[in-house]
UniProtKB/TrEMBL annotation:
SUPFAM superfamilies listed in its UniProt record: Amine oxidase catalytic domain, Amine oxidase N-terminal region
Organism: Orthonyx spaldingii (Chowchilla)
UniProt keyword Metal-binding, yes or no: yes
Modified sites of kind 2',4',5'-topaquinone: Y461
Modifications after synthesis and translation: Topaquinone (TPQ) is generated by copper-dependent autoxidation of a specific tyrosyl residue.
Enzyme class: oxidoreductase
Protein name: Amine oxidase
Matching InterPro entries: Cu_Am_Ox_Cu-bd, Cu_Am_ox_TPQ-bd, Cu_amine_oxidase, Cu_amine_oxidase_C, Cu_amine_oxidase_C_sf, Cu_amine_oxidase_N-reg, Cu_amine_oxidase_N2, Cu_amine_oxidase_N3
Ranges where the Copper amine oxidase catalytic domain occurs: 305-706
Amino acid sequence: MNLKTVLVLLGLALATIFALVCVLLTRGRTPGTCQHLPPEQEDIEDSQSLVFADLTPEEMSQVVRYLRGNLGVQLVDASRAKPSDNCIASVDLQVPAKAEVLRFLDAGGARPPREALAVLYFGKQAEPNISELVVGPLPTPVYHRDVTVQKYGGKLPYHRRPVTGKEYTDINALIQTELKKAPRFLAECCESDGTNLVTLTTAPRGFKSGDRTTWFVLFHNVAGTGYYLSPVGLEVLVDHGDLQVSHWQLLRVFYNGRYFASTGDLEQVFVAGGLQLVRLKQPRADAVLGSMRPRRTPGSPSPLQFEPQGPRYSVRDNHVTFQGWSITFGMNPNSGPRLFDIRYRGERIVYELSLQEALALYGSNCPGGMSTRYLDGSFGIGRFAYELVRGLDCPYTATYVDRHYLAEADTPKTNQNSLCIFEHDSALPLRRHFSDSQSLYYGGLRKNTLVIRTISTLINYDYIWDFMFHGSGAVEVRVHATGYISSSFFYGQGTDFGNRVGPHTLGTMHLHHMHYKVDLDVDGQLNSLKSEDMEYEFVKDPWSAQNTTERPYLRRKMLEKEDEAAFPLNAPLPRYLSFVSPNPNKWDHPRSYRIQVISFAGKHLPTSSSMERSISWGRYQLAVTRRKEEEPTSSSIYNQNDPWTPTVTFADFINNETITNQDLVAWITVGFLHVPHAEDVPNTVTVGNGVGFFLRPYNYFNEDPSVDSSDSVYFSSEQDSGACGDNPLACLSSATSCAPHLPPFHFGGFLNL
């Protein structure tokens, strides 16, 4: 045997050994188990969703550049602007009219022109005012038109403008100046010279249209913790309505149940010995009420959810698809998350699903607390949706999306990773049955849901906004409240308005009410509203005439007018309330989607209140109206600072028009009463503080659409349930080898404040 033959045989032997080793190493694994598979693609063109896309930073900058060069007035950057200046307050997408969009999406029409809506404060004019200008077309604008009168029926008074960050800075400077007039009082009451105290605004600002006077509550400031639980008992009323900052003044002072004309007056009463003083020490960071610093060292890691073969959803630009679902998402910097063109299996179910407003209304025996009715849209629900913490706010492996906005500055800002998208295994069957009669089998389907989430931090509170899409064709909308409670200084009969949660801290009662717009298009734009509920009737038994039975039956009713479809808050709602199509399903029932509200709202402000009309949407837990382009929102950012003459009054939308076979909108209020208690310290927990609603198919399909899910499980007593071919659950053991390589943790949320 020559050397060449030996080398050939040796090479063959080595190749054989290598092949055997590979077989042994891969024995028991399903080939390709960990291979990332592309998500199923939907029929809708991704580019169509861009008709709803939020503005890009480049587009915002182009709008600012155009306005600066084409209005003929000097514009000061809003971050530096005084009330007497002109400035650009915000720039956002001008959402095209629905008819234009549908012609483009459904009928091959032209794409609507892309436009922006710019809000400007004109303080340097003979008649200062707020103006709204539509600017277009983007990305290179060449025109603008003033739509203020068209939208609101007249010019917008200047006093209705939201308070800017610069205005708050100037107010705080005034308060610090005034505090210096009470040095001995501050030293004794708070161990302070005023510089370690922070202020919290209240709203609205006065008692009548034109007022701009605000109570500010003072708290001890401690680095690294929320100051909201450390009130010092001092509150000040500031008049900041004049266009000249130098004319602003402090009108009243409140301390521990008493009112004073000024801080100087307070100092004089204290020095004269006429003040009941409560001495407070500057809280220590390691002992302050409400500290969220961990008290224990980290334990073992918590469970981790991951996708063995990568995400089963697809995100491109502002469009996400998942197992038959197609959703376009975005963010209004004021009102928050908004979804458009929600389709299931290619059919549009919802044209628009958007948050409209969030109200927090407080009670207290202190002036700041008792006068507070926050309308959070005025502050910026979307603007203050900051970066999400990977692995806690959302699953570690979720898809994170940046959001951009332009507000109170001429330069766009980016909230990185401020919206997340993920598939959630709820650890609950969507449906299941174990058969122990006749044939023996098990059938079921896990409740896996696509979730779109963002979280807004509005001063002390954090709101978690969830939009969930189920395999049954149902849409679930839910909001949870967490963060810090707001508090008042505890004195007198404070417990009439809440619970004491600290030595001098009263957790003040309040309600959270949120309002949503749901533009359902069930099997087309033309829908009607139908209610169904149960009644009992007493009938004689057909087989035993001397006996009777109580037989439940369905009471069905078509609601024909808007007044019939306006259901007062906390009044009984029909258990089944559905948007119905004129078209039947296979079983001759109208194809429908049911609205199911989950809420335990507090009481609405009495209609006799001078500011009630500004939040009149809160009168109704559900109201259905005809859709109108001129009624796009139920609230306004201008309602906060002039609730006495509201810019938008939702109650006026309801004028008893017919709602049979019309394009309809459901307006839904959800919320809860919150009486703070000891367990709200350090933070309010989400458990029990979640409300929302469902949009559920009701005879829309011929059967539950999830029956087609590839995740379905079925095995009988005659099958080997441990065999991967018979039971997909038996394949999961190999999926554990597909644990992902997690990206390093990174958080940049503190960089763009």
